[in-house]
Amino acid sequence: MNTWHNTSITEAASLLASDVEQGLSANEAKNRLARYGPNKLRKGKRFSALIIFVSQFKSLVIWVLIGAAAVSAALGETVDGIAIIAIVILNAVIGFFQEYRAEKAAAALARLAAPHCRVVRDGHSAVVAASEIVPGDILLLEGGDLIAADARLIQVSVLRINEAPLTGESQAVGKFTDSLPSETPLAERNNMVFLGTSVTAGTGRALVVNTGMETELGHIAKLLDTAESGETPLQRQLNRVARLLLWACLGIIVMIFSLGLLRGIAPFELFMSAVSLAVAAIPEGLPAVVTVALSLGVQRMVQRHALVRRLASVETLGRAQVICTDKTGTLTMGEMTARKLITSENLYRVTGEGYATEGAFFSGTEESLPSKSPELLALLRSSAACNDAELTLIDDRPGIVGDPTEGALLVAAAKGGIRRGAIETEMPRLAAVPFDSDRKRMTVIRRRENQLWAFVKGAPEVILHRCTLIRTGQGVRELTESDRSRLLQANTLMAHDALRVLAVAERSLAGFSFEEGGVINDNEIEQELILLGLVGLQDPPRNEAKEAVVKCKRADIKTVMITGDHPDTARAIAHELGMLGKGEEVLAGAEIDRLDNEALKARVAQVSVYARVTAEHKLRIVSAWKARDAVVAMTGDGVNDAPAIKESSIGIAMGITGTEVTKEAADIIITDDNFASIVAAVEEGRGIYDNIAKTLAYLLSGNTGELIVMLSAVLLGWPLPLLPLHLLWINLVTDGLPALALATDPIDPGVLNRPPRRSQEALFNREFLTLTLFTGLLTAGVTLGVFAYELYIDNSLEQARDAAFTTLVIAELLRAFGARSEQRTIWQIGLFSNMRLFLIVAVSFALQLAIHHVPMLQTLFQIEPVSQNQYAAWIGAGFIPLIVLELRKVIRRPHKEGLK
Description:
Shape: elongated
Largest sheet: 11 strands, mixed
Radius of gyration: 36 Å
Mean pLDDT: 83
Number of strands: 28
CATH class of the largest domain: Mainly Alpha
CATH superfamily of the largest domain: Calcium-transporting ATPase, transmembrane domain
């Protein structure tokens, strides 16, 4: 691959057999189009709708449920089988629509290409479709153009390019034609222009060197095509649950059937009970519970400015251990802002953010009004007078047309009450000498009160060299060496704070004669200037970002800045946000290139800021964190962020400034471009995981209790305590609706005050299994006790089964209230703080009562009428598991607090 930035213009033209003046002939362009192909980005690998839909059934838990539905239908429980299949199909449909949209990312890249552009063909300017551009074409560039291909510049005039979508560089980049060293990073190849970027100012001619997939944007498209996000932690956990349930069901059937035969139980009755118990052991409501929990979380996240594209990604975000974030537009405003002004007498701090014109000027703690500070007023007026930008509204938001730096100067002037329109009326513009990289200054000549004035801005060291006077609050005086030293020191200090510094000056051109549109001698008029002051500009951090970073630290989440900006700029912003702790490093892209994947993996934990990085660097950083088994979130807005966003555990795009490519590759879109909204989404994700975990614990504890009841009866030689219909009813009433209500529980307010769960942390950890087994044994013990009492004291098998059936249902329904927290008791949480659960338990309780009072249901469930005292005793027994579990929380709390 040619390093075109390291190639001279003559050599590049020779390699491409092109004439920089005449361009290509029409015939040659046609031949090259056939050889190189259209200047289009290839769409990424696509899947048909059918394949995407079929892929929704690859989860093992889905096939376990389908098997359970088939068995239910075989047992005559058609309604139960249909309900399970309906749940499976609903989840497949939701997953289908989420994944179908996610596959649009690579296609969106193609829409960045310019539809038409100007080229030189046969020695004449011609407008052609961007898709017909070929290597060797000569592009003609001017302000507002989208760049149609990667090209080597051969002629420029004050050309500035916005490369933020490609490199993340927040400022427009000045271009030149000189050759550069081969190792020059992408963000500093200032003799090149790239597909997907745009011209903010100036004009130029460029030799096309790469088109289509061979461009830098094409390289990103290839990275995006190969990036894989893999399974989410939640999906891995559910697959483990499915495997466990599958083996458990097979074991149950074999064990109960074998023991029952040895005990002489009728084979058909035994088979029905064993299979019914196996079906009951499968929490078929689990996918519905997960879907409901995630969907409700999605609704809450929309209210907190986070739009979710993949449901499973919500829970993944809750596990996030690392958030890799772009700087420009995410941690910062993405809009250049004047932050400090230095005049002959004062340093002024400027408030307000971005391109909004609300703000004030402070000298120390006192607000300064420009109308009462003549030297400040003069500095602001000249900043607006020597300017080519325009303030405007873009999508109802304050914006600028032109160079972002000049836009920031206009905004600062507007905060002081000086408007560009008034400048043009009071001081008509006659001529300008534009800024370029050699002169490092710009001059505009205007007529003010029948006298010509020159307004100049540029690099401080250049402007100071040309100044002999300085404006003060009392008038103009000589610029002393002490003044020069103080201002140069101020320039150095602001530069160390990553501020871009401009000096502003003016001069009366009394005695000069000049006609509008005439030629001016810049060396002659840019002398003996009156220095007005220095302006320090920066893309400022968002106010909310610093607080969000603090929250991340409290939640044990590492925040990492990844930007295309200069290391000094990145370091200054990171310090201001509190992201750089003791011993944490700043790493540049050139240093990343010197590290292999293993070395980078070993080093990422110590690095909090990456600067001057490319799309490939970002991808490697995310991959290094994933290689350390970290759940890593990647945020960004530019095209260069898209591959890393897709590769990350959870991809997050900015909704306002984000490109369509980035949004399509992401799992979550932040609608207000605010880093604080990402932290709010993490909070929601953690709460959702808690709800899913406690619901699963509730489901499996209940199923464990049922299994222990049946296994114990077989081992003890007792009649089976529960009939197949009893098991299916328990599964419906106690597992389904209460579990769905648990999934809607409010989020614990202290959820961000604990570390995130590790990606490999098993849901079935020791504490989970202990609680599940303890709860199952407790529930089963109470149920078997009631069954034995009725069987051996009252000598009635039907009544004993009724007692076991009723006690187990009541115990499970009441236990749902206690399942809401492992630490807090019902009274601490509030009995009515989840009204859905309260109403569902009440309705389920009423249905259980109806079985004992409706003759048809009595016959169906094979139960006999009982006295009120008996029923009250069974209900009392059903309270025992809940009471014991609540007392366990009270006893264990001091021990847990002592471990903290």
